Amino acid sequence: MTSTPLAAVTGAEGFIGSHLVEALVAAGHRVRAMAQYNSFSSYGWLETLSEEVLAEVEIVLGDVRDPGSVRGFAEGADCVYHLAALIAIPYSYRAPHSYVDTNVTGTLNVLEAVRALDTPRLVHTSTSETYGTAQTVPITEDHPIHTQSPYAASKAGGDRLADSYHASFGTPVVTLRPFNTFGPRQSMRAVIPTVIGQLAAGERVITLGDLRPTRDFTYVEDTARAFLAVGTADAGQVVGRTFNAGTGGEISVGDLVALIGKVTGTEVEVREDAERVRPAASEVMRLVADATRLRETTGWAPAHDLERGLARTAEFFQDPANLARYKTGIYNV
User: Fold this and answer.
1) Residue of 34, 37, 170, 147 lying closest to 100 (CA atoms)
2) Contacts of 67 by beta carbon, 8 Å cutoff, 6+ apart
3) Residue limits of the NAD(P)-binding domain (predicted)?
């Protein structure tokens, strides 16, 4: 008789992390969830999960920037899912040292813990931003890395550390590189919550940055399933490899706004705000995924198209209790 596997998730209190916790519990895992230490004893979005889910979750306040905190957290885990990161691109222009501390040194601490504890698997989280503007499309895992923001550079640094630990020490790490994930619980720093949140708050003139860039949007439940897929697949198929997770479709920000208007039945006018526009050389103009490797290796495929995912996201933000958690009237950096 085998014991129930224990999955340890850093960044579990966040947008994707909280959905991954739900997916892991639904798949029969026990979960140890790290939420960043804070004096309010806040567990972030974990506090909104059902009692049935939380009955299978041990919540630990910690910090990936501290080696001892990470080592204790990873003890006994069958798989560590490392999602903790600073992710807002605009804030990375203001506080790049913080991004290196969390995204590079934090990843180093997780790798060291997994190495010391002989953890059977580590799933490391990358980002499509490490590719920069697409040089060829769709973007495969062999596309050149071209970091156009301090955020992207810090994530690429973590990726290279993960690769080096596998090569140097045989650390059983697999890297998942999600493209733009969206859905309930996402912060207002992302474009879809920015638009839907402003509409839900009664605005009809939406303030945004550049409308030209295109993105490949994946619904959050599908991204969570991608993490589970690489975390549970046969080691020989995934360890030491990087996998894109995306739909293979792309849409411009301008067309996205129009689609959101259609889904919500709202007439939308857009006003450009110079504060929200990235520096010209830093803007990633086109991202679209080739997820063939993930699909052929694990069988993963997205279950939601963009319009269906937007409808579910709109339902979340239109709930007054959910909307009250957000500041829709400011630029959330």
Assistant:
1) 147
2) 109, 112, 113
3) 9-312
Has 151 been annotated as catalytic?
A: yes
Closest CA to 90 of 297, 306, 276, 314: 276
Model confidence pLDDT, tens digit, residues 272-323: 777 777 787 878 899 999 999 999 999 999 999 999 999 999 999 999 999 9
Q: Nearest Cα to 96, choosing from 35, 163, 143, 147?
A: 147
CA pair distance 58, 30, nearest whole angstrom? 8
With beta carbons less than 8 A apart as the criterion, state whether 177 and 126 touch.
Answer: yes
d(CA 271, CA 274): 10
Which residue pairs from 324-327 have beta carbons closer than 8 angstroms and sit at least 24 positions apart in sequence?
Answer: 326/188, 326/193, 326/197, 327/188
- Please, are residues 214 and 288 in contact by the beta-carbon 8 Å criterion? yes
219-255 as b/e: b if 16+ CB within 10 A: bbbbbbbbbbbbbbbeeeebbbbbbbbbbbbbbbbee
For helices 67-74 and 106-117, the axis angle rounded to 10 degrees is 40
Tell me the three state secondary structure of residue 86.
coil
Contact 162, 107 (CB under 8 A): yes
Q: Which of 151, 165, 219, 326 is catalytic?
A: 151
Residues 265 and 196: beta-carbon distance below 8 Å: no
Q: Where are the domains positioned within the chain?
A: 6-187+219-248+288-303
Mean pLDDT by 10 residues, the chain (333 residues): 85 98 98 97 97 98 98 98 96 97 98 98 98 96 97 98 98 98 95 92 85 95 98 98 98 93 90 76 91 98 97 97 90 74
pTM above 0.85, yes or no: yes
CATH code, 6-187+219-248+288-303? 3.40.50.720
Contact call for residues 178 and 218 (beta carbons, < 8 A): yes
